[in-house]
Amino acid sequence: MSAQSAPLLLLLGLPFMQRALLAGLLSGALGGLLGSVAVLRQLSFFSDALGHSALLGITLGVLLGLDPTLVLVPFAVLFALLVNALVQRSRLSADALLNIIYSSSLAIAVLVLSRFPRAGGGLQQLLFGDILGVGWLDLALMAAMLVVTVIGLVLNRRAQILLCVDEPLARSRGIAVDRQRLLFVVALAVVVALSIKAVGVLLISAFVVIPASAARLLARSFSGYQLLASGLGALGAVLGLLASAAFNLPSGPSVVLVQLLGFLLAVLLSACGRSGLAATAGWPGRDG
Amino acid sequence: MGETILEVSHLSVRRGGQPVVEDVSFALSAETDTALVGPNGAGKSTLVQALLGLIPRQGGSVRLLGQELGPRGQLPAAVRDQIAYLPQLFAPTGPLPLTVAEFVALGGVPWRQRRQAVARALALCGCQGLERRLLSELSSGQLKRVLLAFCVVRPRRMLVLDEAQAGLDAQAAEQFHNLLFDLRRSQGWTILQVSHDLDMVRRSCDRVLCLNRRLRCQGAPAQALTPPQLERLYGKGFVPYAHHHHTVQP
């Protein structure tokens, strides 16, 4: 046993570290799963805007003297619905509008928090996450959300895939495009809100975008793509946390860095034409 | 005269406050092949999207297979399942991790029958061997044929194509057209297709609808596509170019 692995094993025995690993597993899997759809439907910037605006929700919680976790979920859902309605109606492009919204939200939140030094003291944790501070309630909510997300994606699989392929084609098959988009945006908002504590405002979109982008380069079927995105998200989070514990690094950035390495590996494998490596649970079988 | 599959009455559609389709009325009989022709911006794509309920209409009524299309494009699922639509611009951007077999199965087949139905549809459309290829790896011609397999994976009665041959080279367009012709006969489809290929329309279609915001003329291609009618439709000096889906306005 090396000098470095002994304290790591000791750390793994501590409840806060076990909760952190579980949180990483759940938030990574959730981010990858929803990211698999968000990336194909070009909604990844939406998760970024939601993440940044979450700070405004936390600020609201601080001003009202409420637990930020309780405020964040309803705030994120309302914010997502509002932004979705704006994007649908605006003549501006979605990315420009989202940029305006998220930078303004961030600016307002930081300015307000700066007036409340006690509340704003944890700004660093809010921005980059404090996965070691995740409690059992957070974990239970994340686990419940993972179950809901999997059920939702299975039940709406055909609609979600057709929307990823071609919206007019999906409409022609009777898919309620607006309702599907709304459902997805609300799910994304809830996941972002639940993961903010662990991942941080600035890094949450990486959890959504990076594993899904890596899986997109490697997968050879849609089912394989979603499983791979989810698996890469969870694996990246766990490996990142272990690296963070082993080398005494901040947890959120460590996870994102591991995910980035995974993405670069996917680029390499894809470029080498080795994408078949990632074929997991791909239908149809050999008989086609 | 066969059964009426589609009945459009005084249909009007506005986009951005501007009238794009005005007071259009026509009906399609079962197992006929009708072309919708007209210059760019004439409202052809808007018309087909409105009569399928994909975009809202501002006036008029549409009956598909005897069912009235709701004001917001609602149609009973049993009726919608019998109609297939091939959009104008169908080309996945970037890597799309979806196999041909997965995509064709989304055309609407029960889970247990999907393998047989997909294999049959791909065979009908000459796409054997493409099952495990990704959609984003296909050529334009293959993509169009796979889209047809998506349509044929379950029985349909009507097929609506919006410039299906756009983006295909001469040989691929000819192959696609022949495949469509064979499928129409074997499947008993009623076809409404937006086309710029007047040569093909003359050769294959039973009827043509000439649109330039309003219906300017309709009838058998030989009668409707006369030089004076074409000049009225496309503008003075129009010369039909007898080659694939291109027409030239000098």
Describe the structure.
- The complex is a heterodimer of chains A (288) and B (250).
- Chain A has 288 residues and is an all-alpha fold.
- Helix content of chain A is 79%, strand content 0%.
- Chain A is built from 14 helices and no strands.
- Chain A has helices at 5-12, 15-40, 44-64, 68-89, 94-114, 117-120, 123-128, 136-155, 157-165, 167-172, 177-199, 204-218, 222-247, 251-271.
- Chain A is globular, with a radius of gyration of 19 Å.
- Chain B is an alpha/beta fold and 250 residues long.
- Helices cover 32% and strands 28% of the residues of chain B.
- In chain B, strands 6-7-8-3-9-10 form a six-stranded mixed β-sheet, sandwiched between helices.
- The N and C termini of chain B lie far apart (40 Å).
- At the A-B interface, helix 9, helix 10, helix 12 and helix 13 of A face strand 6, helix 3 and helix 4 of B.
Summed up, the helix count of chain A is 14
Number of strands of chain A: 0
Q: What are the secondary-structure elements of chain A, in order, as H or E?
A: HHHHHHHHHHHHHH
What oligomeric assembly is this protein in?
Answer: heterodimer
- The succession of helices and strands of chain B, N to C, reads EEEHEEHEHHHEHEHEEHHEE
Number of helices of chain B: 9
Report the end-to-end length of chain B measured between terminal Cα atoms.
40 Å
Strand content of chain B: 25-35%
- Biggest protein-protein interface? A-B, 29 and 32 residues
